[in-house]
Amino acid sequence: MPDATARDVGEFGLIARVVDRLAGGPGTSPSVLVGPGDDAAVVLAPDGRVVATTDVLVEDVHFRLDWSTAYDIGRKAAAANLADVAAMGATGTSLLVGLAAPPDLPVAWAESLADGLRDEAALVGAVVVGGDTVTSERIVVSVTALGDLGGRPPVLRSGASPGDRVVVGGRLGWSAAGYAMLLKGGVPIEALVQAHLRPSPPYAVALALAEAGATSMCDVSDGLLADLGHIARASGVHIDVESRRFERDALLGKACRVVGGHPLDFVLTGGEDHAFVATVPPGAALPEGVVRVGIVKAGSGVRVIGWKPSGVGWDHFRGGSR
Amino acid sequence: MPDATARDVGEFGLIARVVDRLAGGPGTSPSVLVGPGDDAAVVLAPDGRVVATTDVLVEDVHFRLDWSTAYDIGRKAAAANLADVAAMGATGTSLLVGLAAPPDLPVAWAESLADGLRDEAALVGAVVVGGDTVTSERIVVSVTALGDLGGRPPVLRSGASPGDRVVVGGRLGWSAAGYAMLLKGGVPIEALVQAHLRPSPPYAVALALAEAGATSMCDVSDGLLADLGHIARASGVHIDVESRRFERDALLGKACRVVGGHPLDFVLTGGEDHAFVATVPPGAALPEGVVRVGIVKAGSGVRVIGWKPSGVGWDHFRGGSR
C-alpha cells in the first residue's frame, strides 16, 4: 500500500512503521537501554540529573502544511526542544514524540516526520526513544527532549550579574523575516524561508558557552528582547542591548525592501531562530561564533541603546504583538 | 477577572497561573533541582538511568468535556503516564505537560487541570516540572512522565518464560463498562463511571511485582488480552488465560444488564483501567493484591480457556474493534 493512511494500518501499524524509520532502539545509541515498544523507555542519565523539556507544535498555528514538509516539521519540533536542552548547558540524549493526526494521514507523512526528528536529533547524538500516536482533527506534534549535563551545573536564566557581557550565538531575525515573506507571497528569499521552516540552532555554541562559564542562557524562541526580558527578570538585573553591535545583515535588508520593517526589528524581536543568548563574566574568553551585544547592569528591564524597537515578541494566545 | 480566558491573560500569564497551582518548583520535591520557568527542568536521576514515557489525550477522542471535569482529565492524563512508568518497575519522579487549547479556554479550567495533574502525581511523590501552552481548536493534553528505577532492572515486556504465572493487580473492565454506561445514557453506576473518568492505577502493586521478581509487566491500557498479546509477542511465548480465575464482578454484572455484553468480555478486553498484568517465576511469592489469572507456555499467542471473548481491544485510528 504505497498510499496507505493511518486508518489503513491502524495505531499499532503506524507505530511499527514509524519506529522502523527511527532506528532508535538499543544499539543505535549507547544512551538508550530500552527504546520504543515497551511501556516506557529507559535512557542513561550518567550525570545523575536529567534535563527535560517539552514543546507542542499545532497545525496552522506553528506550521502550515502548504509551507512545511513533514520532514521540516520533524526537524523543527526536534530543534525547538533540543535548543531548550542546550540552553541549560546540556547535551540532548533522547526524544519522546506524541503525534495526534487525522485517520487519513498518509503513513508516508508520518515516516517523513520521523525522518526529520531522527536527523535533527542525530546532530547532537540523540535518538527517539518513545512516543504515542492518537487521532485528532488537526495535526499536533508534541516533543519532549531529555539531556545530560555531563557534570556541569545547569545554566539558568537567573544567574546574570551586573558587569556580565551579553552575547549571542547564532542568527537572529531570519525566521521571522522568512515567515513575513511566506505571508506576503511572491518569490521569497530561500535562505530566510529555510531558517523559518527548519531552524538550525548552533548547539555546539551553547555547550561552549556553558563550558566558558556562562552565568545565564536562553534559546531565542520568543525574540531576543523578550528572552533577555526573561533573563533580566529571573536574575533581578537590567540589560542594555547596544544596537550598533549588530552587523548589517544584507539578506534581512533585502527582505525588508519586500515586506517592510527594518532589519534591526527582525533581529531584536523576531522569534523561533533558536539562537542562544547568554551572559558571561567579564574575564571569560568568548567561544568562537558568539558576538557581544550588550551588558548587564544593576536595575531591572531591558533597554535598547541606539534604536527604538517596534515590538517585543510573540504570544500564542493573543495572536502576536508585532 | 474571575472568568478570565487564556486570551485575556496571554500565554505567559496562563503559564504563571498554572505554575502557581502546580507548586512543582524546587523545594516541593527533593527530586526537582530546576522546576518550571527556565528553558528546561532539571530532575534528579539517582539511579543513573531515567524511565520516560509520553501519552497524548485529545478532546472528543480520549475525553468529552460534558463528561469529564478538567480535574478528572488532569488526573487521567497523569495516571496513564505514571502507570506506564510503574509498569517498568520504576517510581515516577516528574511530569512535563503540553496543553494545546482554544484562546477562549477559561483560566480556571487550566488551573483545575493542573490541580488534577498535581494530585495524581503526588500519589507517587512526583511533581510537574515543566510544560508548554499553545493555541489549538480542540484541547490536547500531552504528558511525559519520568521515573527512577531505584537500582532495579527495568521490567520489560520481553522477559516472560514458560512456567511463569500470569498475575493481575487492580480492577479490570470497570473503565470500559463505565464508558458504555455513559454512552447509553440514563443513570449510570457511579463507581464504574468514576473508573473511566479517573482511573486509579495501583502503583504500589506494580512496584511490589517488580521487587518480587516479575519477569515481564504491562499496564492494562489496551485491554487484558491485547496487552498480554504484547507480552507474548515480545517474549516469544504462549499465554493461557483461565477464565475461571476471574471472580464474578457484581457491579459489572449490573452494568451488563443495562448496556448488554458479558462481564468477562469487559474484564478481558476493556481498556484504560491501568491495572497491571505481569508474569512471575514459579517460585516467587505473590505480592498482596494480585490474583493469578493464567500461565506462560512455549509457543505463541494468547488463548482464553473457558470463554470465547468478543473482541481484543482498542485501536485509535480504526475507531475501536469491540
What can you tell me about this protein's structure?
- The first copy, chain A, is α+β, with helices and mostly antiparallel strands and 322 residues long.
- Chain A is built from 9 helices and 12 strands.
- The mean pLDDT of chain A is 92.
- Chains A and B meet through helix 1, strand 2, strand 3, helix 2 and strand 4 of A and helix 1, strand 2, strand 3, helix 2 and strand 4 of B.
- Strand 3 of chain A pairs antiparallel with strand 2 of chain B, so a sheet runs across the interface.
Strand content of chain A: 15-25%
CATH class of the largest domain in chain A: Alpha Beta
The residue ranges of chain A in which pLDDT falls below 50 over 5 or more consecutive positions are: none
CATH topology of the largest domain in chain A: Phosphoribosyl-aminoimidazole Synthetase, Chain A, domain 2
Numbering strands along the chain, what is their spatial order in the largest sheet of chain A?
Answer: 8-10-7-11-9-12
Share of helix among residues of chain A?
Answer: 25-40%
Order of helices and strands of chain A: HEEEHEHEEEHHHEHEHHEEE
Briefly note the structural class of the backbone of chain A. Answer: alpha+beta
Mean pLDDT of chain A: 92
| Tally of discrete structural domains of chain A | 2
Coarse shape of chain A: globular
Quaternary structure: homodimer
Which chains share the greatest interface? A-B, 75 and 75 residues
- Strands of chain A, total number: 12
CATH 4th-level superfamily of the largest domain in chain A: PurM-like C-terminal domain
Largest sheet of chain A: 6 strands, mixed
